[in-house]
Amino acid sequence: MKILAIDSSGLTVSAAVLEDDLLTAEYTVNYKKTHSQTLMPMLDAIRDVTELDLSTIDAIAVAAGPGSFTGLRIGSATAKGLGLALQRPIIPVPTIDGLAYQMYGTDKLVCPILDARRNQVYTGLYEFVRKGTDSPAVYTLHALQAQCAAPIEEIVRSCNMHGREVMFLGDGVPVFAEILASLLQVPYCFAPAHRRMQSAAAVAVYAGVLYRQGNYESARDHKPQYLRLSQAERERLEKEGEL
To answer: Cα–Cα distances in Å, from 183 out to 7, 151, 198?
Structure first.
């Protein structure tokens, strides 16, 4: 199965192509340009360098949210346009699940944190559970706390409650490092730089798992999963006294 994957849910923008168990290409940028400037040129570069015939793509995976509202709209619109043009399904990958999947096989708890502003994070808490005792080992991603928008203190309490070492990753790490240090009562560590931010390769691999479980949709039906109101919507409701 050949999957084209896109993740533009945060500061990093990433695109990748996965064919069965072979990662053919990944292009990731974390720089001071908007995703609208970088994503399409990245996809064009991948197509040109790998001589990719888009008609051979079986499905398009996209980090569907939560995350940056603008970034999610750009990624979903791109995936939707390609899906409609190619008549291929969309595999919507929860952003936080995709981030966690980068730590495949770890014995630590995995806690992605994306800065959601207002002292909140987009987050979740995960573990990898081994299936059977055969070798090589195969693991499944299990959510101890499904992805959500929450105050940083809330996810820290959840980490402390489970009493196991936690690995943190995501763009919220430098933002909340001091709070984590002051509140955590369990051992913890931060993912290294090459595994800390969003990766379309991880989205592609986890999308394959979701596809085999039947978790995909038509391009026409696809839409981002924001989890909370945008700032403009919040301000409007606050002005109208409904929030």
So the answer is: 31, 13, 26
